[in-house]
Amino acid sequence: MNKVLIAVDDTKGSKYVLGVFQNLVRPPQEVLLLHVQRLEGRSLMIDMLSDAELSTLKESLQGTEYKEKLDRHAEKILNYYRKEFENAGLFSIRTIIREGIPADEILKVAEEEKVDLIVVGSNGKKGLNRLITGCVINYVERNATVPVIVEKPETKEIIHGIKETVSPQFS
Amino acid sequence: MNKVLISADNVRGSEEILSSMNNVVTSPDSIILLHVQQLVGNSTMTAMMSYSEIETMKESIEGTEHKEALDRRAEKVLTHYRKALEDRGMKNIKCVIKSGHPADEILQVAEQEKVDLIIVGCSGKSRLRKFTTGCTSRDVEKNSRVRVLITKNNGCGKHAHMWTGREAYAL
Q1: Helices A136-143 and B136-143 meet at what angle, rounded to 10?
Q2: pLDDT digits over A35-94, tens only?
Q3: In the beta sheet, which residues pair with residue B31?
Q4: pTM higher than 0.90, yes or no?
Q5: Is A169 within a domain?
Q6: Upper half-sphere CA count for residue A7 (Cβ side, 13 Å)
Q7: The CATH number of the domain where B57 resides is what?
Q8: Chain A residues within an 8 Å CB radius of B24
Q9: Domains held by chain B: number
Q10: CB contact under 8 A, B23 and A23
Q11: What ipTM is given for this predicted complex?
């Protein structure tokens, strides 16, 4: 395998990707670490912006304190993950910072760089929360042309979907 | 890695799953091949049925031609996968046949057997078809406690940038 794209952000769910090379995936030749700066709100909010609006937003943010803060933040996250992966014995790591719609940027980078595998962490969002705040995984998984690994929390108990809890009573 | 669950759905999608066993993941100690028999229609239909209804359904088709056809199909699919995996030098392959709602059965077996990874194929359905016929890979990804690898067929993701929610909002 040549290239693996790993999408990271500052959430706890994203940390689960660290386990992926421990005994699961064959070590690739190159690892791409991607962080997408979220310019505003949640992923569903930014979904509603058109491309033109998004570029206006990008321009207006250029040079502001907020943007600098985002940059520092991105650096910090990527450095953290780079270090963790280097400790795990991987050396050809390239970091990429993008801005805009997370799912779109992940897919774009995957296409441009011709990666063989996308790895994303799951934060275990469920039901209504997932619907309201938008789910990056959902979108990536649906639209990617390469295999996707969804990393899950190791021990955390996840309640099953509504079907299993409801159906026995109605039977 | 210890245990992998492969959802062996049909022969058509086997190529991608098998190549991912070769390239992406490290060789596991044991493999569980699971085929879930679709008793009726598609996965949305079984999702709407309660457990007792599914049980009645199972009983009522016992010994019928339909059931025999399903059994033959399951055998065919499982032997295909088994042979392909054994050709690649994998050992400890266990075949399981279940019937009912696919996503539920996959999750149940995964839990009972304590697998480390679930591999499911993506059928490459469009949004509308996904909505009407249901999507097992998404249901599994949403509800599973362990990591999930979603492999892609040829033609998956071709709907990617055709019509997303954004254009609808922008109009």
Answers
A1: 150
A2: 988 777 665 666 677 777 888 888 888 888 888 888 898 999 999 989 988 888 888 899
A3: B4, B93
A4: no
A5: no
A6: 31
A7: 3.40.50.620
A8: 1, 25-26, 116-117, 147, 149
A9: 1
A10: no
A11: 0.71
